[in-house]
Structure formats: structure tokens, C-alpha cells
Amino acid sequence: MIRKTLIYLSISVLLSCKVSLSGGNFGESKTISVSFFPNNSSLVQPTLSQAFTEDLRSFFQTQTPLTLTQRNGDLQFEGAITDYRINPVAIDNQTASSNRLTISVSVKFTNIKDPTKDFESTFSRFADFPSSENLGSIESDLIKQINQQLAQDIFNKAFINW
After folding, report:
1. How far apart are CA 27 and CA 116, in angstroms?
2. Domain coordinates in residue numbering, the chain
3. What is the pTM of this model?
């Protein structure tokens, strides 16, 4: 009997706080819009803007109960890719044995229902790969991996207050 009561109370608390099963707090918001993120970095990867924007939209669609709209969502994300670079990270006998692909994005988050949650931040993530690998053959996989990490970081800042 006590166990059933605890389960009932837990579910009631979750529902009253409007917290999704993914852990985000969306308040009274019903819609979300993600603007196109242009690539403003000095090294331009031609498909990065489209890939990042779509990965971010997809992440929010699968991780939230919010409806994705073209513009003017209750929650709005906009910004730009500010850095895309490849640097050596491990040197072995004066030769790079490992490289690092780094992507940084500047994000402006606007919460129409609760402006106290608005923020502007830069997020940066990386993936290392062996220098013996041809970047062209693994680049799309690395970008996908980094985009997922960036989307998770942006989600955490917007909805979990990390």
C-alpha cells in the first residue's frame, strides 16, 4: 500500500512540475523553433550548417513533447557555427598521431513564456581521430557525433539549467 502511494505521489509531482521523461522542464511552452545556423567559422565545411541545424531540430523533436514550428515558437533557438577546426593533439616522434575536430556554436535561447530563462552562450565539443585516418572518410560520422553532444549540452542549459 505504501509503495503504491509513493508511486502515485512521484507521478503527481512529475506531472505538476511539467517535467518530461527526458528530464527537461518546459513550463507552459508548447512549441519550439530552431533557426538555421550559418557557418561563420574561418574553415567552412559545406554541409555543416544544414547538418547541425537538422540534428538540433531532430534532437528536440525526439527528446521533448514540444511541437517544432518554422518560427516564433514559445521557445526559440538561433545562432551560428563559430568555429570548425582540426588540430593535432598527440605528437609521436614529431608527427601527429592523433587529431582533434572541434566545433563551436553560439546559441541565443529565447523563452517567450519565461524570459528569465533566456541565455546567450557558446558551446564547444570535439572528437579525436587517428591521423592515419582520412578525414574525408570519417568526417560525417565525427560531425554527427559532435552535433549530438552539442545538442545535449544546449538541451541541458535550456531545460535542465546546467
Report:
1. 12
2. 26-160
3. 0.81
